[in-house]
Amino acid sequence: MTAPAIRPVLMIGMREDAVVESSGGALTITQPFGRITVRGLPPGVAAVLRELPGRLVGEDEPADRLVASGGTSQEVALLYLVLSRLRPILVHAVEPLLRVVPIARDAVYQPRDLPPDDIVRLSRFALVRRSGEGLVLESPLSRHKVTLTEAAMPLLAALGRGVMVKEAPEALSHLVAAGVAGAGDTEDTDPALRAWDFHDLLFHARSRWGRQEGPFGATFRFLGELPPEPVVKPLPEGPALPLFRPSLEEVAAADPPFTTVLESRRSVREYGAPPTVRQLGELLYRAARVREVFGPTPGMPYEASRRPYPGGGAVHELELYLTVGRCEGLALGAYYYDPLGHRLVTLPARQEDTRAMLAMASTATGGLATPDVLVTITSRFQRKSWKYSGLAYAATLKNVGVLYQTLYLVATAMGLAPCALGSGDADLAARAFGLDWVRESSVGDFLIGGAPREAASGS
Q: How many CB atoms lie within 10 A of CB 131?
């Protein structure tokens, strides 16, 4: 790689969203991670700090300006002490290449001189994406993000194979300090890091507090802009089959004790007789029906529902589709479960897609199961993300988990053969059920068989 033609200039500033205010002899700095109040600052120090938000100055310029305005060495030391407290919002730049911006309240930035012959490579967890009108370099291992200019592109491309420090010492020092690049092979030798796939670590970091700066939680970001998705999706066209509704009093009297059900729960992949449509009706009624629709209410500006399994915010974005291989009283094919009307709607799925869905489910069991009924769980993503920012998909997967357990326990109590699957084909499911993959896509898969074979074992 050839070193940048323009000599880099080291600069600092504050995040653009930092606000510095003076009142009653106190200087208050408000920023995304909290508020810092400093009292008793000399006027010169306060004046320098007020000019830093949203702009960059040379690394030595704050102290130089303070001295030029008559500041003492003690005031310069005080200035640097205050700046050290502001590290979570201080921006460090190598102009005109890149800017390092903190994104966490505990961000610590300590550039250091690197040996000139060291090789620096981009982290395998790093990613580049568009943000606004520019590019951002990020890593789930870092508490900073790096905004890039076009002038940084040759350096970024070269970092894939590695760049010697002496070719761009300032830029490489900042990238290493930001945690998006490094020297050596730590990521390849550290057992903890080797265990992570890129997408898993990114998802983990971005769906919890601590290493992301975006809106997070129940932000209702589309309130007043887009209407919320309905609590139950419009029914697809097709013949509807009403399902059996059990008496919950009779069920409660006949079920084994809860602890017995819990302790005997197993994943069963070998079946005897197929299930009946009556059994499917009871299973879906007990595990997934809509008990009640309510709202909107103050603080919850959308219609919600209560169901046998919990759902974050009572949003209940999950939908159920059945692909039937063997079921007494139900033909081979694909069906949508209407949780409000408690009925199955026949879908016009192609027979080859139906068989492919069952074959994929069998593959997910290592070929151990020949599926009777495959329950595909989808998510209406927009219904969830209308309310939640940052954690919407993570919450959906948690909801899939609790629905899995609910299906397991009910099926076990009924003497059926349940088995959750760890994978599925979202594109195939979208085609089979006539779904828009971006709007509604499969996020979980569950097998229901008839009576388990006596010799079957599970986990």
A: 12
